[in-house]
Amino acid sequence: xxxxxxxxxxxxxxxxxxxxxxxxxxxxxxxxxxxxxxxxxxxxxxxxxxxxxxxxxxxxxxxx
Length: 64
What we know:
By secondary structure, the chain is mainly β. The protein has no helices and 6 strands. It has one domain (2-46). The protein has strands spanning 2-6, 8-13, 16-21, 25-26, 34-37, 43-46. A hairpin with a 2-residue loop joins strand 2 and strand 3 (16-21). The radius of gyration is 12 Å and the shape is globular. The two termini are 19 Å apart. 6% of the residues are buried. Residues 1-40 form the Cupin type-2 domain.
């Protein structure tokens, strides 16, 4: 889940972009390809299940 505290951001999905403003949140279903896009400074809260694999915690080797 991404929760935007301050600023604006987008979430890029395979089928397009979703705009998020302060106070908005989005829950990404398991297995959905996505990436955050921030063109300006943003404060957001990211909540994910413990043990979620990403490029950051696998040394950049994680691939779907």
